[in-house]
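Fold it.
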Amino acid sequence: MSIPVMMTVAGSDCSAGAGLQADMKAAHAMGAFALTAVTCVVSEAPGLVRGIQEVDPELVADQVRINLEHFPVSAVKTGMLYSPAIVRAVHEVLAGTGIPVVVDPVMIATAGDRLMREEAVAVYEELLLPGAALLTPNLDEAAVLLRSSVNPERDELPEAAARLAIRYGCPVLLKGGHLEGDCRDVLAGPDGRMLGEWNRLRVRDVSTHGTGCSLSAAIAARLAAGDGLATAVERGLEFIAAAIRDHLRWEHPVRVDALKLW
C-alpha cells in the first residue's frame, strides 16, 4: 500500500491546536503521511502567544533537505516562517524541485501577536508566493498583502482574491471565516478567474484556533494524493467544517476549545 507523503514547514504550537502539530493531525486524517521541518518554537495557547524562539535558518533548511532526500514528498505546506532568513532558506531548498507548495501566510495570530517579522514580508512576496500551488490568506493577511488598512468585505472577496492571484501569479483561496455572519471562501486561479466559491453556516461560540493551519495542511495532503486543486480545496474545507462542528471543549482551568482533527 502506497501512502502519499507531504511535508509541513511550520512553527511548533505547544497547545497542538495550530502549527505543525495540527498540520500532522490534519494530513493524517486526509490520508497522507506528514513530515515536519520546525521553523520556530512557540509557547502559546488559544488566544495567547507568550514566547517565540526562532530555529537557526540553516537547521530549518537541512530539515527540509533531508526530508526531500529520504522521502517521496509530493506536496509541501509552509506555515509560520517568521524571519527573512528562514524564508530565504526554505526557498533555496524548494526552488527547482517542482513540488507543489501550499503557502499559508501566517503573519498575525488570532490574539493579535505578530508571527512574521515585518521585514520578512517583502522577501516572502518576492521569493515564496510567485509560482505557489496555492496561497491561503485570511482577511487580515489579505489586507496586508493588498496594502490595505481595511479587510475585504463579503462582496469584495472575489475581487480581492483575483487581485492577489494576478499579483503573485498563483491560485488564491481567500478565506472568509472572519466575516460577520456566515462563512464565505473563494478560489481564484492565477489569471484571476473564479474557480470556486463555498458558503457555510457559522458554528457559533467556538474558538477556531488553528483552522488556517489545518486547512492548508489538509489541502496539501490531498494534492499529495493526486487530487486536482479545486477538489483538494473542497475536501479540505469540508474537513475543517466538520472539525469545527465536532470540536472539543475543556472547562479547566479556563475554557479551551479545540478542533477535532481525527
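The longest strand covers residues 33-45.
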